[in-house]
## 1
Amino acid sequence: MANGNNYFIGQLKKWRIADKLDYPNLGNYSPIVTHLLRQRGIQDDSEADEFLSVSETLFENPFTLPDIEIAVNRLHNAQLADETVAVYGDFDADGVTGTALLIKALKKFKLNALSYIPHRVDEGHGLNNSAIDILSKKGVKLIITVDCGVTNINEISYAKSLGIDTIVTDHHLTAENLPEAIAIINPHAENSRYRYDHLTGVGMTLKLSQALLQPIYPESWSEGLIELGAIGTITDMAPLSRENRYIVDRGIKDLQKTKSLGLKTLLESTKTPLNTVNAQTIGFTIGPRINAAGRLDHADTALELMLTENSDRAQELVQELDSYNLERRTLTERTLQESLSHIPAQIPPLLLIGQEGFNPGVIGLVAGRISEQFGVPAAVFAVENGLIMGSCRSANGFHWSDALTKCDDLLIKYGGHAQAAGFSCIPSNLDELTNRLQSVASEQMEETSAISESVIEAEIQPENLMGKTFEHLSMFEPHGIGNPSPVFLARKVEVLKMTKIGKGGAHFKLWVRTAGVNWDAIAFKQEWIEGTKFIDLVYSIELDQWQGKNQLRLGIKDYAPSLQAKLNLS
């Protein structure tokens, strides 16, 4: 039901209805499309065209990144000297796709390249001296890091002592003290002239590959590379604005015709036609399987899949990833239920939960589920080798990286972003850490003075979004963090039929009518109020391509029994 003119109270949450911005239409776009563009901060016709066309002008010049010219020159020297180069990546999907991308790029550059990804539990994040020893024995003279390295001061010094140079590609916030790498390619560095600082780890490897290969292969340098950039960018939950939006849009187009044997095999196993691949495919099908390997065993399985040229081996690797993914789901659900039992009746400003026996590979997923459910930042920890190992997820704009920095005297190691981070500490510091983080969260909430709300972008009936308007709405894709699918509100929607769907009837499907137009509508993980004949509906409009269909349907984000209908109001 409605609560005032600017809010809607659904079954799930409170929604704020975005104010209408009364400005002239942008270009030849309709008022509703103009409204959505204005909500995204787009102010003029050229910006609108750039955004909707996902123009190549969004793709930045790589040579404005710090130290990238130094890195390119060092790689040219490595080629001339026939050196062996190691690509050292993180074990999550961002690091794995970035490692695969850079291996492919270096091979295209005719360099001897090998990969190293540490084990999540046995080695942890970042470089370690044992791994450096292994690479040294293999004759490596240059290490390129992917999605890590900016905090590995001691390890990079150790590599230098063995005669190994290091190029760091990383997108994590830089520290005051930096390692002795010959090049640190990071948009957050003080000397950066780069206009966009939200690139992922795989995004950084894409820019290095561009700087290295584009002068040699102007038209084809990105073939087989940018599709990996799209996978890593979406899976790392980076904001899909400006350059990231371009990478994902172009990468999805390449995925739809990919030559990667491993990726084709994975998509075939999930019965996903190549021409239907989109951001959701990456977020819910490809990404979780890549991540599952590193969460439960070793990320090398996922890396090998992206690099293999053997069809039998590709089938074996896909089966392994499917098995890991099923196990990951089971472990996540079990850990979530155990975590929920530790949550107090009075929810604090920040939740920090954990126990011995939790699998460190799924605690980040559980933290995300808890933060989403309770609307507060959450950290879930496991105990490994006598240490607390925590994974953190944000809510309401809470900045985890800043918060952990304020507690660095209690931590052994920490790192990450505003939205997601990780840390380790000794058990005796856990209570003090919890108290201090809750204090930081409480102060931040006071400063912001309000809990963030989900936004309805416009109140409009779905029949007004058909035809040319829907074509323009489709141009807002790809959707994700920073560019969510537009959400609308429709009043007094007539419910014709309802049926429960999914395992245990966890979801439901509606057949509804608005202004004489019939619609299919799908709701996931929502309860239906029996006997409801008219609803006010919070929805997105989407193209249903399931089993060869091509029809519009409504995605139900929330709903409430229609107050207008109850009062017989027009």
Note: The two ends are 15 Å apart (CA to CA).
## 2
Amino acid sequence: MLSQQPSTRPRIDPRILASRFANTQARARPNAVYVPPDEALIEGVLLSRDLHAYVKSAWSVINPGRAFVDGWHIGAICEHLQAVSRGEIRKLLINIPFRCTKSLTVGVFWPSWEWTFSPQTQWLCLSYAADLSTRDSLRCRTVIDSRWYQDRWGDVFQLLGDQNVKNRYENTQHGVRISTSLGGLATGEGGDRVVIDDPHNMKEIHSENARKEVIRVWKESLCSRLNNPATGAFVGVMQRGHEKDFSGYVLSEEGDWEHLCLPMEYERLRPVYVHREDGSTGIDHVDVQTMPTCLGFTDPRTEPGELLSPERFTPAVVERLKPTLGAYAWSGQSQQRPTPAEGGLFQRATWRFYRKAELPDKFDEVVQSWDMAFKKTEESSRVAGHVWAREGANRYLLYRTCKRMDFVESLQAVINTTTLFPQALRKLVEDKANGPAVINLLRNKVPGLYPVEPEGSKEARAQTASVYQQAGNLLLPHADECPWTNELIEILAGVPRGEWDDADALAQAMIYFGPVMAPLRLDGNSVLISGSVVMDEDSGSPWLIN
């Protein structure tokens, strides 16, 4: 556990370190003047070994009069950035709440610190807006130009006078720092370190086009901007805002990023992307203590709700922020999970489960429900296929597939599911995307194909299905017996702001089954069972019996 254990590094006389440092510099630059060890040089040697100590010492340079509020989370970030500098981490993703010194540490202090011992390093730093990247570029230059920095490392390098503007400056050892926006990334710009700090504008995070543009820039341009892919590194730092933001993409689709996730309130069980041996990716709830980073770091907190930085964000401040931000913004920007812990339309805690031995011997009806997609690309929607069975008021999910498929794979999936569940006489296929083509090609091979023209918005249809779930009439296979149950719960919990494929397939089946009618006759009287869904005769909408 980082920042919790006493240092095991041997104690070395600072005077010896200073002498070594000075002599090394003199040998590297024969014309350099030997600088006798003094207090500043000795401190410089020690700070070049410890980024966290450097951050604490450099703080006052750009924050005069403001006390530095330290925390274990800053130490954890620094430890992982040092591992990047050592070449131990090639891709590092940091998810951490707002106002936790993330941008200063990653975009200001780290580049200026690495230049103290590796001034030839070239940096490319980006954000969603040019003014944000420029801000940190100027702060970094302010640190380098300061008397504090020059007294300690002024003999290592100097900034070139003719290559020194606010968005780009170069030093005498051929190191360079370039700052720009993702949209302003020019051809030929690259670096040994590529820092992506807040790639999304949170005001646009729910715009699908805006999110896709960030991913497009990463895939088509930014991912290839390392000077040397074998030695360079990417570092991303951001708050979560959506299931399909930059973090969601690299965690689910690439899977080779070291992930340092630090929520405001401690949660031991969290949803994480799991990359399986067969190449597929799913979501599962994992004990974070069982998933240390490559450095052996795990969150040092132990109690649920324990705060990340109680000195800065006190319990009272946190409780005031929650209603102000709202459930989704708090969950994403503070907890680093885009979906609230309780869920959205489909609440995590209200699901019911069954084991295979508990299934009814006979169902009233079994149907397939399919939500098709147009094509198979990384940006395309997934094809979702469900098999639902109805028995009385309850609906049982017997089978689920949800993945990106091309047209041929979609056809085969319907055929395979029909073979597995011949009792599913009706096959519901949404009459959009590839749905009509699937029906036309399979009509003579697969009986019971039924086109469904969706009515109303996606959210309205999902809302109808969620009523059944809240009533306790939807049952999923127990996670102990089914590998995809936890993933499905997590995906549905993200509705209406996450992925829709499973929700569309679910809602389609529930609407087909119709409202849950559950009358019982006791002594000749009609009684409605509590927790059942019935249809309001006036509005035609479902409502829940309490």
Note: The first helix runs from residue 14 to 28.
